[in-house]
């Protein structure tokens, strides 16, 4: 623990000194002298007088330093069967060419480029090409509804929109171009150019002169490839939108300098990945995990990144992850607990794991949803490698709490992502802003200033940044997650603070009840919500999905689970309703839609969220959610 302790204490006692040293990890055109600008709190800025280029740090410097022929990106599509490996030199060539095309379309420093693409190499090329020009990219998850895409285009006001003809999902082809065309019909803002990558599975109709074919644009750009623009460290690199409670999406801003330093530091010290190692993040470039750990961090580090188009199950089976690891000699895998739970549900005995050689894999990293102890145990025993939880948010861009595998690794505690990462001053506060005692649950907050790589503000909305994150407790960033810190300093994240339920005056986290439900050998995954109750204020309701092959009586299982919760938590939990369901509604990034489930249970006509993975799952669940006086058990 000494390596972590020394780094952590140094980062808090002397942030200028600590992050000044780490800035040497990055190649600068003008090295910063001012490390942390405190002149306009709460708007703290890192490396204000430094100048650099993000694309240069991801590609050019590695080509210059002898990694031209090393694999930079391995594209593996379980949907189409296509595999492509791009060396650092080849990826740089494509990026410089597409940057030349964007420049010809009028894109320059500070201009915006909206990217609406599936998991194909062109998405990575478009991101890096924007960064090369000093432009600001905003990636929208491919397949997002037209109205949601329109809201993001109107907010970002891009010069160019880059998209593809289609995305591939198990059993279907999703046409992107009609969605994009409809979004642009809804938009007040119109881009100058729309670039479309035509895929073999479905060709899109191009509307001239606005629409341009990707391959045509790339050939034209190759005749005049673009070099790297010199930008300020505080200039924005990208805007990534999250759903806002007001209906207007919140644009999380990421700067160039702090982002490059923080992510480069994190790859080596948190994830134990160095130049030449093979790294795979099984996420999507539409989410922050894809930005940080598919594209930027592994390329900053000079490692090889795997870009996977497919699912953990069904493409073709629950062994797809293990195939990728074996074939590409993956050393570190980063995915969501939801993915592991899906695999565990289909292959509870881990038979498909035994068919593969996974000797290259050193660590499995999980984030995005709370890692319940049962999933941790299954993955640990099945894979035989350390299973490392980490907790962070779109807003922070990199882990807040983690087990630093590249320092002296900490002992693992199931249910905890471990200790705060250097730079993050983590506190748990009660409703009055007082520090909670060990094991006392409260709001997890971060003392300002936040470290490099975190959001400096919201896009064109400083007031909303302050009101959303900084107004609850003076001098603190409110994470929106609740949890506690134990006697050893380990942080336990129990879920969103709005997932804390109040049962007859007793505050209970749904995460603690879910942990008990998940411990049952028949349960693959579960969700608990707090439903309105006239007598007790709220009562917990549980929903469980069975492991594949488990044929049990649903009424008997529900009764067993009610008893189990009473034994583990006590009668105060008042859990009397457990429904066995075929699936839980989730976002495309793997988060269970507990808030939407709660709204439906309380009688609200909750709209289907734009981020949902499969709307049919939610529709199938509505009857069970709307039961007024449910008996224990029930099927959906």
Short structural summary:
With 636 residues, the protein is α/β, with parallel strands linked by helices.
Written overview of the protein:
This protein is an alpha/beta fold and 636 residues long. The chain has two domains: 402 residues, Rossmann fold; 122 residues, 2-Layer Sandwich (GMP Synthetase, Chain A, domain 3), CATH 3.30.300. It is 33% helix and 23% strand. The chain has a seven-stranded mixed beta sheet, with helices on both faces. A five-stranded parallel beta sheet has the order 7-6-8-11-12, with helices on both faces. A four-stranded antiparallel beta sheet has the order 23-24-25-26. Helix 6 packs across helix 7, helix 9 crosses helix 10 and helix 12 packs across helix 14. The chain is globular.
Helix content: 25-40%
Sheet with the most strands, sense and barrel status: 7 strands, mixed
| The CATH class of the largest domain | Alpha Beta
**Basic shape:** globular
Strand order of the largest sheet: 5-4-17-16-18-19-20
Question: How would the blueprint of this fold be written?
Answer:
Blueprint: H1 2-13, H2 15-22, E1 36-37, E2 45-46, E3 51-52, H3 54-67, E4 71-77, E5 83-87, H4 88-104, E6 112-116, H5 121-133, E7 136-139, H6 146-156, E8 160-164, E9 166-169, E10 172-175, H7 176-186, E11 193-197, E12 211-213, H8 214-222, E13 231-232, E14 236-242, E15 250-255, H9 257-269, E16 278-281, H10 288-300, E17 304-309, H11 320-328, E18 332-335, H12 337-346, H13 351-354, E19 363-366, H14 373-383, E20 387-389, E21 401-402, E22 419-420, E23 426-429, E24 442-447, H15 462-470, E25 476-485, E26 491-496, E27 500-503, E28 506-509, H16 510-518, E29 523-533, E30 537-546, H17 554-568, E31 577-580, H18 594-601, H19 615-625
Helix pairs in contact: 1-2, 3-4, 3-5, 3-10, 4-5, 4-8, 6-7, 9-10, 12-14, 18-19
């Amino acid at each position: 623990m000494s390596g972590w302790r020394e780094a952590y204490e140094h980062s808090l006692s002397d942030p200028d000194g600590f992050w000044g040293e780490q800035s040497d990890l990055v190649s600068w055109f003008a090295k910063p002298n001012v490390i942390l600008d405190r002149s306009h709190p709460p708007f703290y800025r890192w490396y204000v007088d430094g100048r650099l280029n993000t694309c240069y740090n991801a590609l050019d410097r590695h080509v210059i330093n002898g990694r031209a022929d090393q694999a930079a990106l391995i594209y593996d599509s379980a949907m189409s069967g296509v595999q492509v490996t791009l060396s650092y030199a080849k990826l740089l060539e494509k990026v410089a060419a597409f940057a030349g095309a964007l420049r010809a379309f009028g894109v320059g420093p500070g201009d915006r480029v909206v990217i609406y693409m599936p998991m194909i190499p062109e998405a990575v090329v478009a991101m890096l090409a924007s960064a090369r020009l000093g432009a600001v990219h905003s990636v929208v998850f491919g397949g997002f509804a037209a109205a949601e895409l329109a809201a993001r285009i109107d907010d970002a006001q891009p010069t160019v929109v880059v998209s593809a003809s289609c995305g591939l999902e198990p059993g279907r082809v999703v046409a992107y171009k009609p969605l994009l065309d409809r979004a642009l019909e809804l938009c007040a803002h119109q881009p100058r150019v729309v670039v479309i990558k035509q895929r073999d599975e479905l060709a899109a109709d191009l509307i001239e002169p606005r629409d341009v074919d990707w391959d045509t644009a790339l050939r034209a750009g190759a005749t005049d490839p673009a070099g790297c623009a010199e930008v300020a460290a505080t200039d924005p690199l990208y805007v990534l939108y999250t759903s806002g409670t007001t209906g207007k999406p919140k644009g999380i801003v990421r700067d160039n300098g702090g982002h490059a330093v923080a992510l480069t530091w994190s790859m080596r010290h948190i994830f134990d990945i160095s130049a030449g190692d093979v790294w795979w993040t099984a996420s999507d470039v539409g989410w922050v995990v894809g930005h940080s750990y598919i594209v930027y961090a592994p390329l900053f580090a000079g490692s090889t990144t795997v870009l996977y188009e497919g699912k953990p199950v069904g493409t073709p089976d629950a062994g797809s992850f293990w195939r990728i690891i074996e074939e590409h000699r993956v050393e570190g895998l980063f995915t969501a607990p939801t993915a592991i739970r899906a695999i565990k549900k289909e292959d509870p005995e881990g038979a498909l794991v035994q068919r593969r050689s996974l000797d290259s894999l050193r660590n499995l990293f999980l984030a995005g949803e709370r890692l319940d102890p049962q999933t941790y145990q299954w993955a640990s025993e099945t894979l035989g490698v350390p299973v490392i939880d980490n907790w962070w948010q779109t807003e922070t861009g990199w882990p807040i709490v983690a087990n630093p595998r590249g320092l002296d690794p900490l002992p693992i505690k199931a249910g905890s992502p471990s200790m705060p990462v250097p730079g993050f001053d983590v506190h748990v506060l009660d409703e009055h802003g007082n520090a909670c005692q060990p094991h006392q649950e409260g709001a997890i907050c971060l003392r300002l200033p936040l470290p490099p790589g975190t959001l400096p503000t919201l896009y064109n909305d400083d007031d909303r940044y302050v009101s959303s994150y900084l107004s609850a407790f003076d001098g603190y960033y409110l994470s929106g997650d609740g949890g506690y810190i134990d006697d050893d300093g380990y942080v336990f994240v129990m879920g969103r603070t709005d997932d804390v339920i109040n049962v007859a005056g007793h505050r209970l986290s749904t995460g603690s009840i879910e942990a008990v439900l998940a411990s049952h050998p028949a349960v693959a995954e579960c969700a608990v919500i707090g439903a309105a109750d006239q007598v007790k204020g709220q009562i917990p309701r549980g929903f469980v999905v069975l492991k594949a092959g488990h044929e049990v009586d649903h009424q008997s299982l529900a009764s067993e689970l009610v008893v189990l919760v009473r034994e583990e938590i006590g009668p105060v939990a008042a859990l009397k309703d457990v429904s066995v369901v075929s699936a839980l509604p989730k976002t495309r990034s793997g988060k269970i839609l507990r808030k939407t489930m709660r709204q439906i249970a309380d009688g609200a006509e909750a709209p289907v969220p734009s981020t949902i993975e499969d709307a049919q799952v939610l529709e199938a669940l509505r009857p069970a959610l709307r039961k007024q006086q449910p008996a224990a058990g029930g099927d959906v």
